[in-house]
Amino acid sequence: MTILATLLGSPLLGSPLPAHAPWPRAEITAATWEAATTHLAAGDLTLLSLWGEPERVHMALSEPAAATIAILTLPCPTGRFPSVGRLHPPAIRLERTIQDLFGLTADDADDSRHWLDHGAWGRGTPLATPPTRAPAHDYAFLPVHGDNLHEIPVGPVHAGIIEPGHFRFTADGETVVRLEQRLGYTHKGTEGLMQGAPLAHAARLAGRVSGDATVAYASAFARAAETALGITPPPRATWLRALMAELERIANHIGDFGAICNDASFAIMLAHTGILRERVLRTAMLCFGHRLMMDRVIPGGLAVDISPDGPAAIRALIAEFRPRLEQLATLYDNTASLLDRTVTTGIVKQDDVRRFGAGGHVGRASGRDFDSRRWPGYAPYDTLRFDIPTLPEGDVNARVWIRIKEIRASLSMLEQILDALPPGPIATPLPTPTAPTEALAFAESFRGEILVWLSLNPDTSVARCHLRDPSWFQWPLLEVAIDGNIVADFPLCNKSFNCSYSGHDL
Amino acid sequence: MRKILLESLTRGALTETAPTPDDAALADLANAVNRAAKRRLGRSLAIREVDAGSCNGCELEIHALNNAFYDLERFGLHFVASPRHADVLMVTGPVSKNMREGLLRTYHATPDPKWVVAVGDCAVTGGLFANSYACDGALDTIVPVALRIPGCPPTPLALLRGLLALLEPSAA
After folding, report:
1. What is the span of the domain harbouring residue A35?
2. What are the chain A neighbours of B66 within 8 Å (beta carbons)?
3. Distance of CA B127 to the CA centre of its chain
4. What is chain A's mean pLDDT, rounded?
5. Cα dihedral A93, A94, A97, A99 sign
6. B169 confidence band (pLDDT: 50, 70, 90)
7. Residues of B with CB below 8 A from A505's CB?
8. Chain segment A435-465, per-residue pLDDT in tens
């Protein structure tokens, strides 16, 4: 019997709830919650997410060895739950978020400082009625002791055109001895706005959790809604979603490739990748009428079909893109001064990515062979041929190469999709369920897997939606990756991760 | 490297001809921009971008202004790293309450004369986040706004049109 089956079968408050698809969710006791935490700490289970509701907490778990997924739900009638982060650090920020939004307390947590609540909302615990906790008033960074150390506070407003976040460096000369992040500046209350929202409106909100991954977010949300409602979108919609998702992946990876090199003062690369990125966005505009393809993926299928001259435009794009990419990859590989900056810089250890369940290029550049397109998998990726590149080194250079290799794979997938694009309708009408339904779904964005847990009311409005960005399990690794590197290499490390602030802050 | 440089020299420019300034943007500016101030600054404006809670979609398109197709710097417009060097603040996002102080400090650190440009539907009206407990909504409720460039996100062309209005002499 697998660990998850044992946990699900052990002293339940009820049996797995029938309305949850496609994986089981069960209400469990605090003892089972603690048993699951012990398994997480031992590395037998991977934490997919941890989130709250006004009177309960959920954790989504996967068991890699058995290829299974389950959600454990712990009712919190007294407003408390046993801390997961105490034994399993990847849960700490998620727990602090549950405390800030819902006012539920993680018992025995080592770090119970506020996280998303900066004391600016005019109230505490905005998603709990009535408020159960006072708003934040001050914030203490972790103390650092030692001779000749100095602090460098950076942000939230940065020098470049990037999102806001605060980085507190403690340095010994040029060498960083600690980085502590403070995030939450872009918190927009997205999950709060979703509660009670009609499905179509909630889908638009999901598409604006992180603008650079709008197709992936809209797809993950749509897949959750469709699974909850028990429908399957038409094949043409599924294939076109993948087409958009791969265009989005290529645009982001090529842009980041140039931006990483630019942060090592190698500006010519950004000039060239900027042209390629613009070509992708213009092709997206021509095919789907929006450069970032926002609001094109909707629950039930798609809002628009690909334009008649779209397929030819994508083939022309591929024909131009492929040789240029190889030229730039060769330039990267032949420029010793650039490699000097990226090789052995910002190393993320393999054990850490496994422990944090870090996905995307961050995980794959440190040997974690995980991609939600392959497992748990979803259409049409089950019929597409693609490699999932992994590298063991975990440095900036490895993350650059993973991105280059993923662009190659995506270009090949674009061709496969165009060759096999089925005809037919692009959307299925949404049924009206008779009872509340729930579902969990994934979609692989360029930075890793997005998890969406959706609970629908009988009128298909949203009862509760939780969106977990891949950045949740990547940001903490950036703190570790910069250890022992010089301050000047932080932009390189940060760009090679390219975590989402907005996706994390919600 | 040498091959790429040579090729770039012979391939011809990708940069597109400048769009005409946006009429709505010009009307917007007519009330806000002081001709004398503009004469002092000449046709060169330094822009500081501030993300006040955007989804990062607007940032992607602002970035695109620097690519070879739009080449913002040919108009004398360029992005600077500090508000103390800036004439223009380009602000995105529905002003998340957690960023309000950062935004105000940036605004006050920018020397006069200065103009604030609201970029994207969120900054213009609050967008989808207008009624959130965590957002203040439209930017002009927090700081005076000289120019509005709507869109979700605005295309680089729309951004360029709006920004060119800042340089257009007829605007004042």
Report:
1. 3-107
2. 274
3. 18
4. 95
5. negative
6. low
7. 96, 98
8. 889 999 999 999 999 999 999 999 999 999 9
Tokens of A109: 């947590």
In a domain, A197, yes or no: yes
- Please state the length of chain A: 506
Write down the domain spans for chain B: 19-171
Q: d(Cα A82, Cα A118) in Å, to the nearest integer? A: 24
Looking at the fold, whether A101 and A200 belong to one and the same domain comes out as no
| Per-residue pLDDT reduced to its tens digit, B73-89 | 888 899 999 999 999 99
Touching check for A162 and chain B: CB below 8 Å? yes
Of 3.40.50.12280, 3.40.30.10, 1.10.287.70, 1.10.10.10, the CATH number of B19-171 is: 3.40.50.12280
**A290 within a domain of the structure (yes/no):** yes
Number of domains in chain A: 2
Residue of B51, B58, B63, B152 to mutate, testing the A interface (most A Cβ within 10 Å of its Cβ): B51
* A188 reaches B (C-beta below 8 A): yes
Q: What are the pLDDT digits (tens) for A344-358? A: 999 999 999 999 999
At B24, the pLDDT band (50, 70, 90 cuts) reads low
Q: For residue A76, what are its two tokens? A: 């919190």
Asked if A185's CB is within 8 angstroms of B132's CB, the reply is no
Q: Are residues A308 and A441 in the same domain?
A: yes
The answer to whether B128 contacts A192, with C-beta atoms less than 8 Å apart, is: no
Q: Which of B117, B112, B137 is nearest to B62 (CA)?
A: B117
Whether A443 and A337 share a structural domain: yes
Last residue of a domain, one of A90, A107, A124: A107
How many whole angstroms separate alpha carbon B43 and alpha carbon B54? 29
- Are residue A423 and residue A304 in the same domain, yes or no? yes
Chain A partners of B131 at a C-beta cutoff of 8 Å? 193
Is A147 inside any structural domain?
Answer: no
> Is the domain of A70 the same as that of A210?
no
Residue in A447, A478, A452 with CA at minimum distance from that of residue A464: A452
Confidence at residue B170, expressed as pLDDT on a 0 to 100 scale: 44
**pLDDT of residue A255 exceeding 90:** yes
Structure tokens given for A349 = 């250890």
pLDDT at position A143 over 50: yes
Domain containing residue A19: CATH number = 3.30.460.80
**Is residue A126 a part of any domain in this protein?**
no
Sequential DSSP letters for A448-506: EEEEEEEEE-TTS-EEEEEEE-GGGGTHHHHHHHTTTSBGGGHHHHHHHH---HHHHH-
> Which residues in chain B have Cβ-Cβ distances shorter than 8 Å to A118?
97-98
pTM score of the predicted model = 0.95
Chain A partners of B83 at a C-beta cutoff of 8 Å?
157
Task: Report the residue from A120, A162, A281 with minimal CB separation from B100.
Answer: A120
Residue in A192, A193, A274 nearest the CB of B68: A274
